[in-house]
TrEMBL record:
One of its GO terms (biological process) is chlorophyll catabolic process. Pfam families: adh_short. It comes from the Eukaryota. It is an enzyme of class 1 (oxidoreductase). This is chlorophyll(ide) b reductase. Its main location: plastid. It comes from Salix purpurea. GO terms for cellular component: chloroplast thylakoid membrane.
């Protein structure tokens, strides 16, 4: 079980190096703003039947937006759509099965979105996997490596490609948000090296797509990064096997609902303000992480918040 703890500890340490909240990367040759999009927005979120994806979907719905959810599991999609429709109404949320590793599935997802929403303003690439495997790379199976890389890297590329193709043909363009994770800042991720490598590639892919759009003088389609920080999902909590891991979870982690409450208004503000600046939105910044750790050592804040520490 030590490998799960290493995952949690490295997640905690990584966020100590993150800069301040919203960092915009712009080019002087690009327009920085255009006509604002008026809400409600049409939103598509991959991997959105549980965890942070589900929390984001609910928060967009609370804001009055229309949402499409998807997952590899048709059963989870059906039950999630039913639950959300009971809370937010029949004509606000739709869902379909989609395996982001399959080009045909993602093309079908785009067609589904166009059929039900006509266009998509905000596309969030949240689907990801670590194959629930924590071990040295030398011990990883072919199946686990293929699962992680095809989902997190190939799947992301396919989704970005199809989202961009769709948005380039929309008069109002659109915004794509790629979710990062442990390893995205370049720090090592021992015992989940494949996952960390794929998350590092998220940042590179986003920057490359931003450069391609600038080269094509495209101003109304923008690719951003989104960082939810440490979220108290089953995956993270499974790593709480040492006191050090429990410390980082108690001090730095937040429930998915809390993270979504912060991220969604920041995401929505970008199209609402007509911004065309590529932006990195972070929930847990380095300043915030250091502040919470200081408060813990100085005042005992957040001790035993989720887990009992020895």
């Amino acid at each position: 079980m030590q490998e799960n703890s290493n995952y949690t500890i490295n997640m905690g340490i990584a966020y100590l190096n993150y800069p301040v909240v919203v960092k915009a990367q712009t080019s002087s040759s690009s327009a920085l703003s255009r006509e604002p999009m008026l809400p409600p927005f049409n939103v598509l979120i991959t991997g959105s039947t549980k965890g942070i994806g589900y929390a984001l979907a609910k928060e967009f719905l609370k804001a009055g937006d229309n949402v499409i959810i998807c997952s590899r599991s048709a059963e989870r999609v059906q039950s999630t759509v039913q639950s959300l429709r009971e809370e937010f109404g029949e004509q606000r949320v739709w869902g379909t099965k989609c395996d982001v590793r399959e080009g045909k599935d993602v093309k079908d997802l785009v067609a589904f979105a166009q059929e039900n929403l006509k266009y998509v303003d905000i596309w969030i690439n949240n689907a990801g996997s670590n194959a629930y495997s924590y071990k040295p790379l030398a011990e990883a199976s072919d199946e686990d490596l293929i699962e992680v890389v095809t989902t997190n890297t190939l799947g992301l590329m396919i989704c970005c490609r199809e989202a961009m193709k769709m948005m380039l043909n929309q008069p109002r363009g659109g915004h794509i948000f790629n979710i990062d994770g442990a390893g995205s800042d370049g720090r090592p991720t021992p015992r989940f090296a494949a996952y960390g490598a794929t998350k590092r590639s998220v940042v590179h892919l986003t920057k490359s797509l931003q450069a391609e759009l600038r080269m094509q003088d495209v101003q109304n389609v923008v690719v951003h990064n989104l960082s939810p920080g440490m979220v108290t999902t089953d995956l993270l909590m499974s790593g709480a096997t040492t006191n050090q891991a429990k410390f980082f979870i108690n001090v730095l982690a937040e429930p998915a609902e809390v993270v979504a409450e912060y991220l969604v208004p920041n995401i929505r503000s970008i199209p609402a303000n007509g911004s065309t600046k590529p932006t990195y939105i972070r929930f847990l910044t380095g300043v915030k992480a250091y502040s919470q750790i200081f408060s813990r050592f100085a005042f005992g804040a957040r001790r035993n918040r989720y887990l009992l520490e020895d």
